[in-house]
Amino acid sequence: MFEAFEKYLKEKADLDAEEINAVRAVSMEKKVRKRQYLLQNGDVCHNNCFIVKGCLRMYTVGDDGVEHILRFAVENWWISDRESYNNGSPSKCNIDALEDCEVILIDKPDFLNLLTTIPKFKNFIDSLLARSYDAIQNRVMSAISYTTEERYQNFITRFPDIFNRVPLHMIASYLGVSRETLSRVRSQYVNK
Amino acid sequence: MFEAFEKYLKEKADLDAEEINAVRAVSMEKKVRKRQYLLQNGDVCHNNCFIVKGCLRMYTVGDDGVEHILRFAVENWWISDRESYNNGSPSKCNIDALEDCEVILIDKPDFLNLLTTIPKFKNFIDSLLARSYDAIQNRVMSAISYTTEERYQNFITRFPDIFNRVPLHMIASYLGVSRETLSRVRSQYVNK
DNA sequence: CGATTCTTTGAAAACAGTCAATCTGTGTGG
DNA sequence: CCACACAGATTGACTGTTTTCAAAGAATCG
Known about the structure:
Chain A is built from nine helices and seven strands. By secondary structure, chain A is α+β, with helices and mostly antiparallel strands. Chain A has a domain at 2-120: Jelly Rolls. In chain A, a hairpin with a 5-residue loop joins strand 4 (56-61) and strand 5. In chain A, helix 4 crosses helix 5. Chain A binds chain B through residues 60, 62, 66, 68-70, 82-83, 86-87, 126, 129-130, 132-134, 136-141, 143-145, 173-176, and chain B through 60, 62, 66, 68-70, 82-83, 86-87, 126-127, 129-134, 136-141, 143-145, 173-176. Chain A binds a DNA duplex through helix 9.
């Protein structure tokens, strides 16, 4: 399982063999079954999680019991509740698996240690965070500026891989509309 | 004008006199008049901007000419288009002053230099970025989960200082609703 | 096959957007 | 100091979109 992560670290973060060994030493391999939680509301997020295989989602549950999906994550993405991770506060979110998954977990103290001992790794993670900030800002922009149809179009062109493997009602949840509305928007679109 | 920034750096980032001098050496003081642009759509964002006094907004303009406000910023906040700044790409946004402002600009190369030579500064900026990530993620959550009234309530409790100094139609724009809708939501709220 | 989960559809109600008009407060120039 | 212009806020009437609830059709999986 670690090979995929190793390849990723080599290609994306440009780590050498020794550095990769340092990462390996603190990596925990884990399998997460479909529907299983990786993080539950109220828990503190202690890990960084890299996805070797599978698909997960992070979401909140409103007072009315409705789920609101904050993000999806697939192979070669990271997922964790950064707010809880950074502040040690109980998470408002859940993370669970939409498919059987293989992930690699790195504990917070170990991860901090990697960041300080491997400058290349620190730079890489910093640039990842910067890009996820850009992505999330673009999402805010699209939430306040675009119509439902535009947001849907945006989603399938930006994340065709995700679109193909998660149920539509979850995409609706991600976009902030009801499943019925998304269904209707799609059928109108098909008839053009 | 620099004194306010100095105080901020001392208190928040714990910089000593020598470090503050290094920051001062690359700081450019600037006054921005109400309605004046700090950044215009199409330009590349070259600076970090710290606000000593005043209030600014960052927004996009849609094809239909409608403005969508991404964020406000007041005293002791930073504002810049991070996406353009990081990638050197032309900005999709405008930043302009809602009041007469005093700001401090630090050029990108100078700023990078400060980050590498002053580890405390780097840590401080990293934690700022982490918190702004949390903030923006909470905004996504509120956009997809809450009603207009809840979002409005949220805004005035979280940012009472901003609420008191920017026109309502800009808050409407920030929340992603028309000014008329926000006006009606408010009056319903008052009548409870 | 039966059971779940997912998607679609219909009809009514709630909500939000648009356009136009009015009301309010602020500040500037005469 | 007043009149006027101007930006901001509100209201009404109308239209369009989205939600909600209920039901029924696909698709998938054991």
